[in-house]
């Protein structure tokens, strides 16, 4: 069936040419609207499958206003823009678009961007449907389960963890009952570990004590709509998701999730919770009716389910910080699906470990796992590395070569350092991913491939796009399910476990040395900022274990602080912005190279920047040569 497209564009010629191109490709044009008002009228007449909307429209409402409405209505949309002014881009990105088309439009790009947008939308629907089915099935099992009340409640909490990330959950089983025993509170302390607080128990650092809960109950009473809040403070947390559960049309119970991290809840969580609201109420009702087990062990109780402490595939991954658990949850959630996954994080944070775990948790685990490090392969060989080549296709290609796409057939292809991929290869990669077929270099036939792509990067891809080094359409195709791993300095609570783990490993590999770390040495590890993240910690400990003459490491020889940190600012010195410093630095390099940008001895080489990146930075900072 033809896909229905609505075009919202006030420039007649542009709208008309888009419409002709799309009609020729078999799309149905639902109409051309010149303003948000006109667009809304057309949408009311019949929902389009996708909307192409100009960011700047005449009238009071802009394309961004329309985008917000479309996002709420779950209609995918692509922005049309000639201007990549950064503030507008930031605002536009926040509306959750499925892509951007930059004017003047090229036919091929229009079609590719539309295909990607449709792919992303289909994947999100598919993801939601499967999540819903999976959660419903789990809830049904818990409802039918025999067992004591606390056992069933724990199974319930564990089931919810995979779908609604939380660090603390409050299940209120009887809102009308002023008894603290009607409220169940659990804190998540590991991937599959929880601490339960019974009536009178102390929920630790988080002040969710009974008086707080009474106040929250009072505030929520009568509220029938689930909501989420991000970025505010709630008793020490930064995110909250609340859902009322109805019985006989009355709000009788509720579930509240709290997260230590910002922005963990979204409209998707609301959609999912609403889709199982009735079942959640039935499960809690069945738990309420099951046998009470008040005479249980002292409180608070740390609960681990034997044999299921951690998914074995995640076992080598050390740490229990909320930031790490958030990433691990996402890995476990997305693994069974076929989605492309993009993993972002600074160098050495553990991206590769997560990618391997993802493959192991996926249905492709018995098939090949193939890694390509896009930064380590010379540019002229990258294409043949990815897609292979035919004998004699270029000088030196004496043998036919099978590329990584073919080697990864039916398995996972891990594209590490994707931000380093040259733009020329990016378009070929995009085609290979989108069309699921490749052509060997020098080959004439297309070869079908079935690979799941997982890409990782330590670069800010949006900045790379702004600098002209990364294709917007490839970014949208890869960024279907993004996962960010926080740097070590933002999850310092993981340091002791990681340090102990590395001490043990390097102790064993250096002849079974048993080494421990003193408290003051551990404090040194805490105080440092770890620009090289876990890899840097690992190397530091390896060195100290090898050199350790005693069984205790009393102090670490910490790396020198970064040069910047050594500058002491006198009270009258002026602090320069990063842009000002960049400008001075670039001008200095240009002077040294006499204005030469590209090639050997050019400023690009000196600054370790691609000439294109350097030129766009110069343009942005208003640098010209000779310097005015
Ligand atoms: N949570 C963890 N538990 C145990 N070891 C870890 C953990 N995270 C990272 N490591 C170890 O730290 C080292 C660096 O990790 P890894 O290579 O996965 O980082 P990366 O993010 O892929 O870095 P880069 O961007 O430089 O490729 C590896 O030896 C890895 O085993």
From TrEMBL:
Domain of life: Bacteria
Cross-referenced Pfam families: AAA_lid_14, Response_reg, Sigma54_activat
GO MF annotation: an example: ATP binding
CDD domains hit by this protein: AAA, REC_DC-like
Residue intervals of the Sigma-54 factor interaction domain: 317-546
Keywords: ATP-binding, DNA-binding, Nucleotide-binding, Phosphoprotein, Transcription, Transcription regulation
Protein name (record): Fis family transcriptional regulator
Species this protein is from: Puia dinghuensis
Source species taxonomy: Bacteria, Pseudomonadati, Bacteroidota, Chitinophagia, Chitinophagales
């Amino acid at each position: 069936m033809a896909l229905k497209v609505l075009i919202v564009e006030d420039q007649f010629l542009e709208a008309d040419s888009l419409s002709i191109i799309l009609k020729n490709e078999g799309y149905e044009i639902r109409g051309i609207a010149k303003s948000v008002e006109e667009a809304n009228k057309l949408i009311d007449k019949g929902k389009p499958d996708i909307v192409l909307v100009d960011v700047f429209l005449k009238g009071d409402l802009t394309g961004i206003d329309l985008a917000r409405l479309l996002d709420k209505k779950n209609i995918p949309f692509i922005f049309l823009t000639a201007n990549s002014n950064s503030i507008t881009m930031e605002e536009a990105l926040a509306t959750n678009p499925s892509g951007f088309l930059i004017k003047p439009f090229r036919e091929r790009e229009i079609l590719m961007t539309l295909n990607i947008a449709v792919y992303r939308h289909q994947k999100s629907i598919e993801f939601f449907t499967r999540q819903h089915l999976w959660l419903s099935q789990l809830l049904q099992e818990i409802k039918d389960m025999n067992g004591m009340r606390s056992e069933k409640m724990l199974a319930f909490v564990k089931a919810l963890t995979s779908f609604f990330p939380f660090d603390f959950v409050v299940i209120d089983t009887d809102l009308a009952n002023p008894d603290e025993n009607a409220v169940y509170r659990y804190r998540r302390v590991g991937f599959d570990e929880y601490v339960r607080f019974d009536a009178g128990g102390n929920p630790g650092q988080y002040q969710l004590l009974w008086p707080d809960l009474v106040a929250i109950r009072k505030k929520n009473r009568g509220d029938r709509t689930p909501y989420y809040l991000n970025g505010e403070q709630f008793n020490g947390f930064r995110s909250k998701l609340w859902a009322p559960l109805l019985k006989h049309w009355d709000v009788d119970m509720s579930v509240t999730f709290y997260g230590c991290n910002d922005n963990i809840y979204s409209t998707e969580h609301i959609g999912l919770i609403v889709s199982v609201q009735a079942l959640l109420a039935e499960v809690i009702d069945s738990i309420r009716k099951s046998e009470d087990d008040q005479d249980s062990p002292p409180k608070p109780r740390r609960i681990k389910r034997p044999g299921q402490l951690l998914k074995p595939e995640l076992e080598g991954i050390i740490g229990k910080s909320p930031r790490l658990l958030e990433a691990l949850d996402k890995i476990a959630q997305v693994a069974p699906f076929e989605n492309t996954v993009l993993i972002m994080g600074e160098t050495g944070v553990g991206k590769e470990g997560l990618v391997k775990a993802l493959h192991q948790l996926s249905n492709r685990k018995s098939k090949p796992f193939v890694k390509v490090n896009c930064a380590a392969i010379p540019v002229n060989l990258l294409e043949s590395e990815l897609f292979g080549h035919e004998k004699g296709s270029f000088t030196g290609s004496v043998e036919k070569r099978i590329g990584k796409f073919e080697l990864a057939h039916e398995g996972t292809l891990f594209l590490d350092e994707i931000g380093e991929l040259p733009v020329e290869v990016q378009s070929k990669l995009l085609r290979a991913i989108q069309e699921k077929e490749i052509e060997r270099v020098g080959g004439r036939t297309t070869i079908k491939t079935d690979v799941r792509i997982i890409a990782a990067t330590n670069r800010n891809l949006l900045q790379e796009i702004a600098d002209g080094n990364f294709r917007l359409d490839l970014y949208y195709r890869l960024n279907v399910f993004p996962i960010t791993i926080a740097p070590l300095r933002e999850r310092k609570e993981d340091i002791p476990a990681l340090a102990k783990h590395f001490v043990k490993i390097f102790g064993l590999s250096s002849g079974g040395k048993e080494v421990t770390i003193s408290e003051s040495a551990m404090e040194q590890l805490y105080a440092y900022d770890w620009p090289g993240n876990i890899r840097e910690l690992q190397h530091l400990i390896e060195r100290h274990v090898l050199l350790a003459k005693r069984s205790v490491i009393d102090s670490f020889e910490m790396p020198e602080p970064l040069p910047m940190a050594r500058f002491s600012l006198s009270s009258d010195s002026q602090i320069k912005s990063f842009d000002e410093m960049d400008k001075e630095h670039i001008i200095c390099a240009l002077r040294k190279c006499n204005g030469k940008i590209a090639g050997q001895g050019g400023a690009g080489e000196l600054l370790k920047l691609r000439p294109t990146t350097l030129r766009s930075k110069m343009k942005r900072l208003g640098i010209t040569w000779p310097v005015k």
